[in-house]
Write a structure and sequence with these properties.
heterotrimer; A alpha/beta; B mainly alpha; C mainly alpha; B: mainly alpha; two-stranded antiparallel ribbon; two-stranded antiparallel sheet; 14 helices; about 5% strand; C: mainly alpha
Chain lengths: ~525, ~350, ~425
């Protein structure tokens, strides 16, 4: 093998999910001893690409992929994650694949334990070979030494700092004898700054030992620090592949976001004189994976306010926290009144409605009729749609039916009747049912999270149009959280970008791609501060 | 057409189909071996009314998201205590029955509160915990039956201490519901009062499920996260479901006893929950979904099968235990089937 | 001062962590006092029960470690054992030969039962315990169907001793006297002092050898203190047994079935051995986190299946040892309570749904059966009613299972909530 030969080449990789093209002819070439960064927003196609590389079952169950993967000069077809391991492709997972009750050694050698013969195993087979703890610990020590980790290899993982766990995970991968390509999936997302620094140093060390590294991240400064080459994906397409010394943070940010706005009938510019309807002060929400860490924000009455940012940065946690669905602290004021925290009833009483991002998990009663889905929250919180007989109540079928068919007509929910259960409705129609329920509450503030996730293009436009119409005609304040920046920019009056659980900045939808890109990557404030210092 | 048959088959469910065909087969067999069908059918009706309320007790528990309430013996014990106190008070007839129920209900509510509190703390393992809470309550109450300060000679052993294992209700409230407005038609004896009482309780449950509280309970069982987001207090809903289930268990055993003619104590209530669970599952309910229709169909199928299979089996083979064995296999088999359906997708 | 605080904290943790066990130690002691039993009689009774029941309890450990909770389906293992006994008794093979044949025959039956159980439990993940409990009831129905209805009708069998006079179905009790009764127990027995003496001598020898060999190791300091305790305990035991031998104490009349005790030891060793192999490591991994195990390439369904199959075979053998000691087999009842009693014993020993050790299993057997022996007598002496003691015993068995399951579920819920709070 010549020195400058590529160890891994992915050629013209394309992938379709149910007629939806999510990867369009991606080319990716990585040399041994290279750190190759892959940048892109959520939904740009990074994870699909990696799923293909690891032969995940999702890929094969949905019709496989097009294109060719060449590893070490040979075209290979990876059918399962176990096969990927055999080929020498490893992954450092974002959520740790460590067993807390095991020692470091046991975790490093998980399912690759070194064993030795004994009498029983000679008769009953390999499964009964005894573990060779001495050899295992030797290997573990070696891997840990490579990472310059000075910790006893028999310490239990439980209770170790997160940074250490990450290193154990890496040690496991480099302990694999034939490892050629190692994927780091957002490895620094959970680390402190110094831990992240150590990790980057370790990555350089691993690369120097001749292993190719695919580095998936959104932290642009880290990319600039360690990556040799950078590939940027957007909407399933390869935007550019750049050498480190030929680019800079600004350019990367711009390439990542790109401009792709189609205008939905936008409401006219709002005056800034409108009063503040919602103010959030030092909000902290413990939503796993979407933690909010001391965020402050103000929203004016009558706005469509967008909340954007990358996945895992906490944008989803805001609405969930305000609605009282996850443990929350801080101060929230609605129309001058303080909101009781961790109390969904109070949020509903203060005329806030919420269309959840988790439509099937939290947004719908899947085995219940459309009409009941639409009215149930109002029944419970407003006492509408029921007849009272002293202490006893009965639901008012007539009213419910009338209201539901009205909603079905207005929002154009495609269904057989208002009695149909919601499970088999299409994603778009399910979303409309959720919106109908929120509207039935006659809210003054409407939170909508990921309104277009998982629904087709036609329905997307309808949903967005509906939101704009509600805002325009009823003056409803709408706070829309979305991973799709383009969508936010097409309907919102203002967009707050969330990074690391805080507001990185608030932009007008017409602001430049560079600004959006930098804010999403969490680089905006840093750059800005640097600028200040220079002046 | 095929599609509609398929749809029907899917809705009706394989187990129900098997049991229903088995029941029809049994009826044919019974007719063939010359058993008096009208008498069998009246027996089925009596058993249907007898067990109906106990099976109905499953509905609020399943709907509120607790799952199959194997802890039904808790309610049953309250009912038994009510039944005993009413005899101790030397009441007879409807008075006795009504008093028994009126005493049992507040007791069951108290027990239900404690039981609900417990179940709210063991979310996800309710069924297993409930089973053993039921078992241990039955054993604890066995000690109770030995020590309770009841003195009516009908209740306690003439010699020694403690309450009898079986208490005869003749002259107290034996069959007061069964014999209310009863009549005979085509050689069948219809226990009108019993059926009416059971249907009335079903109707009350139906009304409850359409009240605002009932709707909240249904949502809780269906999707607790949705319920929370809709401002429903999940723990409260589950609590109400548990209390209702326990109260119905108490009322159910009183109805059962008056029809049976005896009150059975000590180890007898141990497995009564299982029978009720099996019946509602045969009726088409699952661990997460149940309706009053499931109760009616399930009780009819299950009890019908048990009632008819016994004499048929006796006629064909002189083995008395065959009916009992098939009861064990069918009732536990259906519960196992239901369990595999819950997490089968995982 | 700080040390004292630390000690207090440690003691407190010890008491809270071993609450169940401590309560049962207290109950056992109180029950013994009020039962008015003599010590030798009690010890003898206890020894019989320990040798009889330990194997069944040990059979529960491996599924717990594989994360499948308490395997109520060891009832099926017990059935497999009884199937073997019925066949061997029918063939008329007696004594040690008959017993060994039972052990051999029970294995394939238990493996099939275990395979079916494991497959079912793989379909009811997260609900294994309730599924295994109900499966026990269900299998009991099938068992009755086969031996009460099929024998003599579908399965031809002619045996006046075993089959009911009607020619259909097995008798309710099968007397194993002259068959495999005491087949193992009576091979070799030692009186309690002799057994104690030989145990203590062996222990002392073992420690000395280990001590001698370990001189090169670095852990020698820790070893000496721990082993010093064991050594002196063994010495005391030896002295006690020599003293007893020279009195006319009743202990000299009581005998311990050495081979049975060795069999129990062997199963303990087997369990320890399994957990040190690759299979054992896989079991533990699957038990700790099924998802991670799968990602690491472990076929968790297969591992779980193996765990249940091992457990079922051990339970089958356990039931064989149980019945050869008991001497009569209640055809339709001997297996019924096996699951519940074994599980109650394991839990009383301090195990939980997700953690179990050999020590806990053995301690549990001792405590649970102490309660079994003393509670009817204590009930009679204190409340004037033996039945009360029996009910109390049943309540304790059910209650401890319910309590343990409840505590485990509650702990899990609290942990989930805490992890959300960070």
């Amino acid at each position: 093998m010549k020195n400058n030969d590529y160890i891994l080449q992915m050629k013209k990789i394309s992938k379709e999910y149910y007629g939806n093209r999510v990867l369009k002819g991606i080319d990716l070439s990585v040399k041994a001893g290279e750190i190759h960064a892959i940048l892109g927003e959520n939904g740009a196609g990074k994870s699909t690409l990696m799923n293909i590389l690891f032969g995940m079952t999702v890929i094969h169950e949905t019709g496989g992929y097009e294109g060719e993967i060449v590893l070490d000069g040979e075209t290979i077809n990876i059918k399962s994650p176990v096969e990927a391991l055999d080929f020498g492709i490893g992954m450092v997972h974002q959520e740790f694949m460590l067993i807390p009750g095991y020692s470091i050694t046991e975790n490093i050698k998980l399912n690759r334990e070194i064993t030795k013969e004994n009498i029983v195993s000679k008769i009953f087979g390999d499964k009964l070979k005894t573990l060779n703890l001495k050899e295992m610990s030797k290997d573990a020590r070696k891997a840990l030494d490579t990472l310059e980790m000075d910790i006893d290899e028999w310490v239990k993982v439980a209770g170790m700092p997160i940074g250490y766990m990450q290193f154990v995970e890496i040690a496991r991968e480099i302990d694999k004898k034939n490892i050629k390509v190692l994927v780091f999936d957002e490895p620094t997302a959970v680390l402190t700054e110094s831990e992240a620094d150590n990790l980057l140093k370790a990555m350089v060390k691993i690369k120097e030992s001749g292993i190719a590294i695919l580095f998936i991240t959104h932290r642009l400064d880290e990319v600039m620090e360690v990556a040799d080459n950078i590939t940027i994906l957007r909407d399933g397409e390869l935007v550019a592949t750049k050498k480190n010394n030929e680019t800079n943070v600004m350019e990367l940010a711009e390439l990542m976001v790109g401009r792709k706005i189609e205008k939905v009938a936008r409401s006219k510019e709002k005056q800034d004189t409108a009063e503040t309807i919602l103010s959030i002060n030092n909000l902290k929400v413990m939503m796993p994976g979407e933690e909010v860490k001391g965020l402050s924000l103000e929203v004016k009455a009558g706005e469509i306010f967008g909340i954007g940012g990358l996945a895992g940065q906490g944008k989803i946690g805001i609405a969930n926290g305000i609605m009282g669905l996850y443990p929350t602290s801080g101060e929230i004021t609605i129309e001058g009144e303080k909101l009781k925290l961790n109390n969904p009833q109070d949020a509903l009483k203060k005329n806030i409605a919420f269309v959840s991002e988790d439509r099937r998990g939290m947004g719908l009663l899947l085995d219940t009729s459309i009409e009941m889905n639409i009215v149930i929250t109002s029944i419970q919180n407003k006492g509408t749609f029921i007849k009272k007989f002293g202490l006893f109540t009965q639901i008012n079928n007539k009213e419910i039916k009338a209201h539901a068919s009205n909603m079905i007509k207005e929002l154009d929910i495609r269904c057989r009747s208002e009695k149909q259960v919601t499970r088999r409705l299409s994603g778009g129609n399910q979303q409309k049912v959720c919106i109908a329920r929120a509207l039935t509450l006659e809210p003054t503030i409407l939170f909508v999270s990921e309104p277009t996730r998982g629904i087709d293009v036609g329905a997307k436009k309808l949903v967005l149009d509906t939101l704009v119409k509600l805002n325009k005609e009823l003056g409803m304040t709408i706070i829309m959280t979305s991973s799709e920046l383009a969508e936010l920019r097409s309907v919102c009056d203002k967009i707050a970008i969330i990074s690391e659980g805080k507001v990185e900045g608030i932009l007008s939808p017409d602001a430049s791609d560079v600004d959006f890109g930098l804010m999403m990557a969490g680089e905006y404030k840093k750059m800005h501060n640097k600028g200040d210092e220079l002046q | 057409m095929m599609e509609r048959i398929n749809e029907f088959y899917k809705n009706f469910g394989l187990p129900r189909l098997i049991i229903a065909s088995f029941l029809i087969l049994l009826c044919i067999a019974a007719a063939m071996v010359g058993l008096p069908l009208p008498a069998l059918f009246s027996a089925v009706l009596v058993r249907f009314g007898m067990h109906g309320v106990l099976v109905l007790a499953m509905v609020p528990a399943i709907i509120a998201g607790i799952g199959l309430n194997f802890g039904l013996p808790l309610g049953i014990l309250c009912g038994l205590l009510g039944g005993l106190i009413s005899i101790e008070l030397d009441l007879v007839g409807f008075n006795a029955l009504a008093t028994a129920i009126l005493i049992a209900i507040p007791l069951a509510m108290l027990v239900g509160v404690a039981y609900g509190w417990l179940l709210n703390r063991v979310k996800g393992s309710e069924m297993m915990v409930a089973t053993y809470v039921g078992f241990s309550a039955v054993s604890l109450m066995s000690i109770g039956w030995l020590l309770l300060p009841l003195y009516s000679p009908e209740i306690v052993w003439p010699i020694g201490r403690g309450i009898r294992t079986t208490i005869v209700l003749t002259g107290r409230y034996d069959k007061v519901l069964n014999n209310f407005l009863d009549f005979s038609i085509f050689g069948m004896h219809i226990p009108t009062g019993l059926l009416l009482f059971m249907l009335m309780i079903c109707f009350l449950m139906w009304l409850f499920l359409r009240s605002s509280v009932g709707v909240a309970m249904k949502a809780t069982g269906d999707n607790p996260r949705f319920a929370t987001a809709s401002g429903i207090n999940v723990n409260k809903s589950r609590m109400i479901g548990t209390i209702l289930s326990t109260v119905l268990g108490a009322v159910g055993i009183i109805v059962f006893s008056q029809s049976f003619g005896f009150i059975q104590l000590y180890q007898a209530p141990m497995f009564m929950g299982f029978g009720a669970v099996a019946a509602i599952l045969i009726g088409g309910a699952s661990v997460k979904k149940a309706s009053i229709t499931n109760v009616l169909i399930g009780t009819l199928l299950f009890q019908g099968m048990l009632v008819i299979s016994l004499p048929v089996a006796n006629k064909i083979m002189t083995l008395g235990s065959l009916a009992e064995i098939s009861r064990i296999i069918i009732s536990n088999g259906i519960i196992l089937y239901a369990l595999t359906q819950v997490s089968g997708g995982e | 001062m700080i040390e004292k605080k630390e000690l207090m904290e440690k003691t407190k943790r010890f008491f809270v962590g071993n609450m169940v066990t401590i309560v049962f130690v207290a109950l056992g002691i109180l029950g013994f006092i009020y039962s008015g039993l003599s010590l030798p009689f009690f010890v003898n009774e206890l020894f019989i029960r320990i040798t009889r029941n330990s194997l069944l309890v040990l059979a529960l450990i491996i599924p717990v470690l594989a994360g499948m909770g308490l395997n109520f389906a060891i009832v099926l293992g017990a059935m497999a054992g009884q199937v073997a006994i019925i066949v061997v008794t029918h063939w008329g093979i007696v004594g040690v030969k008959g017993f060994l044949l039972c052990m051999l025959l029970a294995v394939p039956v238990a493996l099939i039962f275990g395979y079916l159980t494991g497959s079912l439990l793989n379909k009811t993940k997260g609900k294994e315990m309730i599924a295994s409990l109900i499966l026990g009831f269900f299998a009991n129905g099938l068992y009755q169907l086969v031996f009460l209805i099929f024998i003599g009708t579908i399965i031809p069998m002619q045996n006046e001793v075993l089959v009911l006079s009607s020619g259909v179905g097995l008798r309710v009790t099968i007397d194993l006297t002259g068959g495999i009764k005491y087949a193992i127990d009576h091979i070799w027995r030692l009186t309690i002092p002799w057994a104690a003496l030989s145990t203590s001598i062996l222990t002392m020898l073992y420690i000395s050898i280990k001590f001698y060999l370990s001189k090169t190791r670095k852990t020698i300091k820790q070893m000496t203190t721990a082993h010093l305790y064991y050594f002196s305990a063994a010495m005391l035991l030896a002295l006690w047994s020599i003293y007893i031998m020279n009195t006319d104490s009743l202990f000299n009349m009581l005998r311990v079935p050495i081979i049975t005790v060795l069999a129990i030891l062997l199963v303990c060793l087997f369990t320890v051995f399994i957990m040190k192999t690759k299979l054992g490591q896989d079991l533990k991994t699957v038990g700790q986190d099924r998802h991670i195990a799968t990602v690491a390439g472990i076929n968790s369904n297969k591992v779980r299946l193996t765990a249940i199959m091992i457990s079922t075979v051990l339970a089958a053998w356990g039931q064989l040892f149980f019945l050869q000691n008991l001497g009569t087999m209640s055809t339709y009842g001997s297996h019924e309570q096996v699951g519940m009693f074994s599980i109650a014993a394991l839990l009383i020993g301090g195990a939980s749904v997700s953690k179990a050790t050999i020590g806990q299993a053995l301690l549990g057997v001792v405590l649970f059966h102490t309660l079994f022996i003393v509670s009817p007598l204590a009930g009679r002496n204190v409340f004037g009613d033996a039945q009360l003691g029996e009910f109390f015993r049943a309540f304790v068995a059910y209650g401890v299972i319910g309590l343990s399951l409840g505590m485990h579920a509650w702990k899990k819920q609290i942990q989930a909530r805490n992890s959300l709070k960070g």
